[in-house]
Amino acid sequence: MRKKVVFGRSVLGAAAVIAAALTVGYAPLGIGGETKDASEMDMALLGGTTTIFRTSREAFSAPASNLDSKSVRTFMFGRHLFRRNWIIAPASVEDLDGLGPLFNRVSCSGCHFKDGRGEPPEKQDALMKSMLVRLSIPGESPVGGPNPHPVYGDQLNDRAILGVPKEGRAAITYEERAGTYGDGTPYSLRYPTVDVVDLGYGPLGDDVMISPRVAPAVIGMGLLEAIPEKTLRDLADPDDADGDGISGRVNMVWDEAAQKRVPGRLGWKSNQPTVRQQIAGAFLGDMGLTTSLFGTQNCGETQTECQSAPNGGEPEVDDTRMDALELYIQTLAVPARRDLDDPVAQHGEQLFTDIGCGACHTPTLKTGEHQVAALSDQTIHPYSDLLVHNMGEELGDGRPDFEAQGDEWRTAPLWGIGLVPTVNGHRYFLHDGRARGFAEAILWHGGEAEKSREAFRTLSAEDRDALVRFLETL
Amino acid sequence: MSERMKMSSKRIGVLAICAGLMATPAAAADYDASAQIDAYATLVYTTYKASYDEALKLRSAIDTLLADPTDANLKSAKAAWIASREPYGRTEAFRFYDGPIDFYDADSGEEGPEALLNSWPLNEAYIDYVEGNPESGIIFDPSIEITPVSLAEDNQMDDEADVSTGYHAVEFLLWGQDMNADGPGNRPVSDFAPGESDNERRRAYLEAATDLLIQNLSTLVDAWKPGADNYAAEFKAMDQKEALQKMMTGMATLAEFELASERMSVALDSGYQEDEHSCFSDNTHRDLIANADSVRNVYFADYGSYDGAGLNELVAEIDPALNDKMVTQFQATDAAINAIPHPFDQVLVQEKGSADRQKVETAISALQAEAATIKEIGQRLGIDVIVVTE
After folding, report:
1. Any idea of the CA torsion for B194, B197, B201, B207, to the nearest 10 degrees?
2. Residue B141: which of B208, B197, B193 has the closest Cα?
3. A-chain residues within 8 Å CB-CB of B131?
4. Does B23 touch chain A (CB under 8 A)?
5. B163-174 burial by CB neighbour count: b if 16+ within 10 A, else e?
6. How many C-beta atoms lie closer than 10 Å to residue B207's C-beta?
7. Alpha-carbon span A448 to A360, nearest angstrom
8. Residue whose C-alpha is closest to residue B366's, from B378, B374, B377, B355
9. Segment 195-254 of chain A within 8 Å of chain B by CB
10. Beta-carbon neighbour count of residue A353 at 10 Å?
11. Among residues A93, A175, A408, B87, which one has the fewest Cβ atoms lying within 10 Å of its Cβ?
């Protein structure tokens, strides 16, 4: 028998948040029940007035709801570029060529599928599809960043154009280790080990440092860029002066356009200062495409085929296209929070605060002025302080990135995280996707977060579920 | 108006839909749209049925081509493909409201067949050889099974551009890459000669992709067939405003987002010759006309010999001036779209500000104006019409 299908989800679903907000007593312009507190509704607007109401698989793909129509047109062009495949030079479509010589994927959306979150390969011998491996050796680059491997550079490129050897392939193996919740319920965490195999240019050497990283969702990035530097400095507590055991630090990184060190905000270690530099870095590192910001192809010392391969123009991606992509990533909207009236989620939110998660996953921040007016002066709820924190040796990658140490990571923003299963069809979390679900992700928290982790571990099953339920509403 | 105020009015709009239109705006009129809703269901059925029938003809032309791969038979198959696009392009206003074509059920993972039917742009190299890569894609990878089911499973698995199915996959197989500045793709008919392994796989691919197209169109025909226990029955039983909201959301979204933005302004801004909807066949100008017709057809409940009770009749009763405005705008769009030179890809490579580019801009503006009036009509009917961007 034909299965009866429920229609009407997305058009009406967009309004579910409002319906939920109504039932907790908030009524826009006083229609409906009693007017309680506008702040409850505002907590649903994770991206302030940029917030969009969408719970479908396209939840991460909409422009900020307050964006003007001229900018929306640019956004749409940027989106097109984000999803376009770049091709090998020389090609008949000149504007799209220049891929490689070495690369990881042929489009931005190859890793950031539906503008969402990547995942580790399911099979050990499969190529990474939405994940990559950073490389470096001890020491610092001239601008204070990771010291690239002399041959392989700062990223393993597991694909290459015809006639150029690939650099190799990263293979992850996992070891399960058992643990127990406070109430005796067992759990298991998978400990990853990354090996680089099929090396194309000789051994990596004993001192190489390897950091696997999945592609993050790319929503709300312009809002994070718009948070004033002073806010970050005020949040930081490098010497733990307040004695709460948490010492968030600003990671000062190199800004190539400004030619100076500025606070990092983006990337798994807050290792990128701006959306534009992040994009230019990804073009070069992930797709082998040069821009006006990074104009030199990243071929290593002995990678002669790479050095002599034809290029697709200088730069390969012009500034008009960079401008469109920059606006696109800056204004990809954060979807509204859902189910604010769910008492379980409300309880979970209280626990989130009580056990100290919010000390780093800062619920509310304000943006300052931004070149995109729609992003300025917004009250937002990223659930992040953008600072790097010691997360313990087990979660660490042992690879410094500017001032972030091997066991330090940026507090990951949690907005939109509850929609990852809908958009990307998986629940793999943390920088390398090792966590299979929200609970495992929390259980991996160590270092400064150990106290909160232990509090979570010793909660009742009901309370643990409530906290996870809260995360699912973000 | 402050940002905060804008947000508040937006919330009200969204609220009105979700709460079953509990707060009817003062301007909204009383009316009975049952005739329009019934006619819409018949229109949708009629247009999908025409698409299905043309797809069967395409399949038959492809059978002939594969039985006897000659230039003449390849030409006939291409003509059948172009003919099949005419009705399908006129179904696209039936998207964007989670109906049979593009619903998604997050719990079961079930979804409508839109992505399997009409995804673009496609990554040619994911399917078959391309210039510079003579052995690329599924056709040259014998480890991948070629059946309608396996192709559907491979569609857009890792990348939006990794399209393995639908009209544009069939188009690519028939025409090949368009490497010509002034004409469509020109795949040699010898690509379909039986015997060689890759040719056999290409032949199987063409059959499987066409069969899948037919299967998917068939489910849409069934979903809208009159007198059955199907979506059409559910649709007719809906609250009138809910049904009207779906109809008009589809119209406004096709006009303003999918057509004006995705298929026209993005292509113009990009300026790549092959950034067009039907890039292998250079048939994009027909896609544009069919899509514009699709919006208008919903308004008039008109397709081919079918002429039902249109929204025009309803609006003319409530607000004749608004109906006149809508009708005039449809005429303006029609003129503007038909004035776009073809092949469309020749316009894309022209300098900014060229006369031909301006013709496309005029059509974009006409479609935006059309969408604005559709929203205005929605207000008069007490409905919030949302343009959905995917």
Report:
1. 20
2. B197
3. 91-92
4. yes
5. bbbbbbbbbbbb
6. 17
7. 10
8. B374
9. none
10. 14
11. A175
B312: which 2 tokens?
């025009």
CA-to-CA separations, A368 to A126, A147, A377, A413, in angstroms, rounded? 44, 34, 5, 18
Contact status, residue A15 vs residue B14, Cβ threshold 8 Å: yes
pLDDT at B70 over 50: yes
Select from B17, B19, B389 the Cβ nearest to the Cβ of A63. B389
Burial degree of A436 (CB within 10 A; 0-12, 13-18, 19+): middle
Determine contact, residues B224/B44, Cβ cutoff 8 Å. Answer: yes
The pLDDT value given to residue B106: 72
Three-state secondary structure of B260-325: HHHHHHHHHHHCCCCCCCCCCCCCHHHHHHHHHHHHHHHHHCEECCEECCCHHHHHHHHCHHHHHH
pLDDT tens per residue, range A335-374? 999 999 999 999 999 999 999 999 999 999 999 999 999 9
Residues 6 or more apart whose Cβ sits within 8 Å of residue B337: B288, B289, B292, B363, B366
> How much is the mean pLDDT over chain A?
89
Helices of type H across B190-256: 197-224, 231-237, 240-252
Query: What is the distance in angstroms between the Cα of A48 and the nearest Cα belonging to chain B?
Result: 10
- Average confidence (pLDDT) over B233-242: 97
Q: Is A93 in Cβ contact with B273 (below 8 Å)?
A: yes
- At residue B125, does pLDDT exceed 60? yes
- Tell me if A84 and B121 make a contact (CB, 8 A cut-off): yes
The secondary structure of A241-276 as a DSSP string is TT-SS---B--EEEETTTTEEEE--BSTTS-BS-HH
How buried is residue B277: exposed, middle or buried, by Cβ count under 10 Å (0-12/13-18/19+)?
A: buried
Q: Is B121 on the interface with A (CB under 8 A)?
A: yes
Domains of chain B: 31-380 (1.20.1420.20)
- When pLDDT is cut at 50, 70 and 90, the band that residue B158 belongs to is low
Containing A409, the helix (H) or strand (E) segment is: strand A408-410
Q: How far apart are CA A416 and CA B294, in angstroms?
A: 35
Backbone conformation region of residue B133, classed left if phi is above 0, alpha if psi is from -120 to 50, else beta = beta
- The residues, any chain, with a CB within 8 Å of residue A48's CB and separated by 6 or more, are A223, A367, A378, A379, A380
Structure tokens at B333: 């769009």
Phi, psi of A34 (to 5 degrees): -65, 150
CA distances from A453 to A353, A434, A474, B98 (A): 13, 17, 20, 41
Phi/psi at A436 (5° precision): -105, 75
Distance (Å, rounded) from C-alpha A223 to C-alpha B65? Answer: 56
Residues 6+ apart with CB under 8 A from B51: B84, B87, B88, B91, B217, B220
| Integer CA distances (angstroms), A448 to A246, A249, B229, in order | 5, 12, 60
For residue A69, give the H/E element and its range. helix A69-83
Contact (CB, 8 A) for A280 and A291: yes
Query: Which residue matches tokens 């010492």?
Result: A247
Instruction: Provide ipTM, 2 decimals.
Output: 0.74
